[in-house]
């Protein structure tokens, strides 16, 4: 059995965070950014505008979000880049550290998500989903952990990844999110000697502009309360997990989805 290296008690984590997938002000990433800014975090925001245009049909407006957060006295750096390129995740972490110093938190909200099924998914699409959802998340976590020398009293960090359990007619997205879960959860054990804690968060269906009325009604009908939540509900849990009060929650896949698709008993 592998035993994690015992690590000395460290100082509080720095209030600096790298968030990925923060292209649009109405997205989950933007809600998390606002919440962390309110908690005193300086932020590096990674985004890929071509994805927002290609998949969501919207232009990235993260510059306006940055202005909003800077007006609150927060330092904010914008880091565009395609995480499908294996060189980009490390470059993004390096640029965030150069701008903000040691990072205390990494929250990954980025994804590739294009609907397709077992019979019509292309190899090209599957490979891009894997590159963005799995490989990039691993490389981001690795670069984040490499800030810290194992066995020292240097502050470690907290990493949270957003996931999903959707698979039917969404094969490459769902399959690669499952792989993401395994990569991130391993981090709590493998990186314990560096003071890194990791969690995976499944928020269920959150309407950030991708739902039409039919989808919205169908999803709401599967909620015990009959209504959908907004991005702020995700931000609230992330803020707790990054706080000292939430620090004992680690190595968990948390379903914070309002009971979505939970069978009635």
TrEMBL record:
Gene3D superfamilies named in the record: NAD(P)-binding Rossmann-like Domain
Molecular function terms, GO-annotated: oxidoreductase activity, acting on CH-OH group of donors
Keyword Oxidoreductase tagged: yes
Organism domain of life: Bacteria
InterPro entries: NAD(P)-bd_dom_sf, SDR_fam
Alphabetically ordered keywords of this record: Oxidoreductase
SUPFAM superfamilies per UniProt: NAD(P)-binding Rossmann-fold domains (SSF51735)
PANTHER family reported for this sequence: NADPH-DEPENDENT ALDEHYDE REDUCTASE-LIKE PROTEIN, CHLOROPLASTIC-RELATED, RE15974P
Similarity-based family: Belongs to the short-chain dehydrogenases/reductases (SDR) family.
Protein name according to UniProt: SDR family NAD(P)-dependent oxidoreductase
Organism expressing this protein natively: Brachybacterium saurashtrense
Source organism phylogeny: Bacteria, Bacillati, Actinomycetota, Actinomycetes, Micrococcales
């Amino acid at each position: 059995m592998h035993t994690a290296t015992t690590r000395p008690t460290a100082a509080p984590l720095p209030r600096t965070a790298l968030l990925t997938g923060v292209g649009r002000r109405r997205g989950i990433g933007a809600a998390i950014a606002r919440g962390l800014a309110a908690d005193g975090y300086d932020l590096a925001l990674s985004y890929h505008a071509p994805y927002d245009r290609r998949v969501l049909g919207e232009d990235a407006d993260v510059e306006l979000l940055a202005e909003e957060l800077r007006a609150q006295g927060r330092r904010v750096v914008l880091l565009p880049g395609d995480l499908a390129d294996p060189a980009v995740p490390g470059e993004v972490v390096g640029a965030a550290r150069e701008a903000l110093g040691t990072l205390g938190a990494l929250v990954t909200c980025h994804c590739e998500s294009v609907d397709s099924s077992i019979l019509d998914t292309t190899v090209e699409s599957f490979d891009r989903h894997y590159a963005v959802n799995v490989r990039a998340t691993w490389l981001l976590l690795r670069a984040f952990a490499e800030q810290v020398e194992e066995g020292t009293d240097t502050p470690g960090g907290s990493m949270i990844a957003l996931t999903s359990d959707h698979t039917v007619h969404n094969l490459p997205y769902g399959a690669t999110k499952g792989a993401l879960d395994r990569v991130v959860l391993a981090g709590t054990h493998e990186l314990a000697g560096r003071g890194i804690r990791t969690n995976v968060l499944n928020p269920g269906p959150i309407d950030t502009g991708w739902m039409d009325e039919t989808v919205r009604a169908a999803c709401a009908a599967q909620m015990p309360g009959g209504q959908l939540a907004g991005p702020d509900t995700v931000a609230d849990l992330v803020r707790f997990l990054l706080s000292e009060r939430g620090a004992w929650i680690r190595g968990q896949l948390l379903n914070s989805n309002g009971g979505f698709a939970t069978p009635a008993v």
